[in-house]
Amino acid sequence: MKSNNLNFSGGPGALPASVLDEAREAVVSLPETGLSVLGMSHRSAWFLGILDEAERNLRELLGVPERYAISFLQGGSSLLFATIPMNFATSVFARPEYVNSGYWSSRASAEAKRVCNSRIAWDGKPGGFRELPALHELAVSRNAAYLHYVSNETVEGLQFAVPETKPEVPFIVDMSSDFLSRPLTAGQFAMVYAHAQKNLGPAGVTVALIDREMLARIPAGLPHILDLRTQVEHRSNYNTPPVFSIYVLTLVTRWLRSEIGGLAAMQLINEAKARRLYGTLDAMGGAVKVHAGRPWRSQMNVAFTFGDERLDRAFIASASEHGIVGLEGHRSLGGLRASLYNAVTLSAVETLCEALAEFGLRHG
Ligand code: PMP
């Protein structure tokens, strides 16, 4: 039988069981209003309270200073790939720079190229996207508009450490696949963004933390909906926001605060899960290959292969007998990928490791 607990999908993926229970109830009738959450007006006092709470909980969990605006946006991270250069790369003298470290950062830089004269600060493609650069050692122009990178490459399973110091050039970071998985020093970044469908909730909403200093650089004349000031000024209620997604995101932030005990505790759990899975894969010797080079292994996405498509497919079939789902690698890379987002429990990872060990024995 398939189970939400054993969903290792790259996203949308697993959500905490208690959140799913509350969301199920809310679809029929919200305890606070007696109405379905799906029919709640985005102008209702109830929803304005949810928006306030979502922002408050994120500020508290991540230690976000007041200097940063928090917006709940639509269009996914892909729309921000386009709107970030439209908003912040407006001077011909200050080009934005991009780190190409995998599938998603390459998508971001390709989009920027369509909008402005961006530059690639580092390219991991020739090396097959198996490693990451040291960000503070990159030769980035002092007057670059910003440096963009993806903190966790969801497809290849590569993850940057959180920078320890504030860089000279504004850092703009796509944290779609590791936001809320570990503590963050928000003050190091000019802007951080993450769509919901990994660690935050269902697809439909994208969170952006933006230093107000950056907002002051936005040129006049952009269409309102593409101008990042608009949702800040309208408290994420300029047009109809995805009420349900933002509601579930709020439930997830409550879960992180009260059941998990904050992001330092979440990080410890995530470290234990990743250690367990990588340990199992490493113990299988040459039978499996992890895509990422060791120092850059992600705690969120583990991309690996048995080195033979038939064996990869056979493992997916054998894991499904244990109720495990979502192990297919991304279409651009193939192979297998186990995503260990916040709601995937250590016990689910144990089940996956047992399935791997059993399969390894059977196939030598
Ligand atoms: N960035 C990263 C790191 C991602 O993993 C993804 C999708 N999985 C995207 C951006 C694209 O996001 P969206 O589908 O919300 O546009």
Written overview of the protein:
The chain is an alpha/beta fold and 364 residues long. It has two domains: 18-260, Type I PLP-dependent aspartate aminotransferase-like (Major domain) (Aspartate Aminotransferase, domain 2, 3-Layer(aba) Sandwich); 261-362, Aspartate Aminotransferase, domain 1, CATH 3.90.1150.10. 37% of the residues lie in helices and 13% in strands. The protein contains ten helices and twelve strands. The strands form three sheets. It has a seven-stranded mixed sheet with strand order 1-9-8-7-4-2-3. Strands 10-11-12 form a three-stranded antiparallel sheet. A two-stranded antiparallel sheet has the order 5-6. Strand 2 (97-100), helix 4 and strand 3 form a beta-alpha-beta unit. Helix 2 (45-62) packs across helix 7 (243-260), helix 3 (76-88) packs across helix 4 and helix 8 packs parallel to helix 10 (346-362). The longest helix is centred in the C-terminal third of the chain and has 21 residues, at 263-283. It is globular, with a radius of gyration of 21 Å. The two termini are 27 Å apart. The relative contact order is 0.17. The mean pLDDT is 96.
Name given to the CATH homologous superfamily of the largest domain? Type I PLP-dependent aspartate aminotransferase-like (Major domain)
Q: Could you tell me how far the N terminus lies from the C terminus, measured between alpha carbons in angstroms?
A: 27 Å
Instruction: Please indicate the count of domains.
Output: 2
User: What's the SSE pattern?
Assistant: HHEHEHEEEEEEEHHHHEEHEH
Instruction: Just name the CATH architecture of the largest domain.
Output: 3-Layer(aba) Sandwich
Q: Note the total helix count.
A: 10
Bound molecules: 4'-deoxy-4'-aminopyridoxal-5'-phosphate
Largest sheet: 7 strands, mixed
Low-confidence stretches: none
Quaternary structure classification: single chain
Structure classification: alpha/beta
CATH class of the largest domain: Alpha Beta
Strand order of the main beta sheet, please? 1-9-8-7-4-2-3
- Indicate the percent of residues in helices: 25-40%
Shape field: globular
Strand proportion: 5-15%
Q: What Rg do the Cα atoms give?
A: 21 Å
**What is the CATH topology of the largest domain?**
Aspartate Aminotransferase, domain 2
Q: How many beta-strand elements?
A: 12
> Average pLDDT across residues?
96
